[in-house]
Structure formats: structure tokens, C-alpha cells
Write a structure and sequence with these properties.
The protein has 134 residues and is mainly alpha-helical. The protein folds into 2 domains: 1-44, no CATH class; 49-129, no CATH class. It contains 5 helices and 2 strands. The protein has a two-stranded antiparallel ribbon. A hairpin with a 2-residue loop joins strand 1 and strand 2 (104-105). The longest helix is centred in the middle third of the chain and has 35 residues, at 49-83.
Length: 134
């Protein structure tokens, strides 16, 4: 199999004639009674510098977008929690889970609402960001 690419490899200048012939002799030597052959399969992937720069730019945009979404979600979640006081009162009376205290909704109400709004905003942002271009 290796000998079959001899002319192609020599014409392409990948290897010189002496080195190729020595390699073939070494391969035949491995088939003798005391010969040893070890092979490691490697895979190489080439990436253009432009692709790397574009990926870094997209990564920065993704990090900035995630930070912006998490920041904007805080006041929206606060506003939503305050407006959902009837829901928190109903949860407290129905399931006997402490939801409304003397100073307003419990911490878990804020966290639950914030996480929900954050998830929704992230979903919308990803859908818009990664939509196919027309």
C-alpha cells in the first residue's frame, strides 16, 4: 500500500527518493521474525487565522450578551415579584410555604422569578443571535 504512492509522493516533493526507499526497507524489516512495528494514528485539523479571530469575537459578544441579560433581568425580576404578590399569597395559603413576610416576598420568590426571567431572556437572545441568515 505504501509502495503504491511512491511516484506520487516523489513527484509532489513530499519526500526524497532515498528517504522513501529507506522507509520501505524498514517496513519490510518489521515483518521478519524479530521485527517490531508500532503505529500511531494522528489527525490534524487546519484552522485559518481568520476563523480563530471570528470565534474570539463571537465569544466576546456572547459573554457581553450574557452579562447584559443577567444585569437587565434584575430590575425586571424585582418588578415582576412585586406584581406577583397575590400569587405568592395564594401559594402560601394553599401549600403552606412561607412566601410573604412582614417585609414583602421571600427570597425564594425573588430567585425563582429572576431565574425564570433570565432563562426566558437567554432563550430569546439565543434564538435571535443564532437564527439562520436570509
Amino acid at each position: 500500500m505504501i509502495e503504491g504512492v511512491r511516484n506520487t509522493a516523489l513527484e509532489a516533493g513530499i519526500v526524497d527518493r532515498t528517504t522513501f526507499d529507506k522507509g520501505i526497507q524498514d517496513l519490510y524489516r518489521t515483518s521478519e521474525s524479530d521485527g517490531v512495528f508500532c503505529n500511531t494514528f494522528l489527525k490534524a485539523v487546519a484552522v485559518r487565522q481568520w476563523d480563530i479571530e471570528m470565534n474570539n469575537s463571537k465569544r466576546r459578544q456572547d459573554i457581553g450578551g450574557a452579562f447584559l441579560i443577567s444585569l437587565i433581568s434584575v430590575p425586571i425580576a424585582f418588578f415582576a415579584v412585586v406584581n406577583l404578590v397575590p400569587v405568592w399569597s395564594w401559594i402560601e395559603s394553599t401549600f403552606e410555604i412561607e412566601s410573604i413576610g412582614h417585609s414583602g416576598p421571600a427570597t425564594w420568590c425573588y430567585l425563582t422569578t429572576y431565574i425564570f426571567i433570565l432563562a426566558c431572556a437567554t432563550f430569546v437572545w439565543l434564538a435571535v443571535r443564532h437564527r439562520p441568515e436570509l
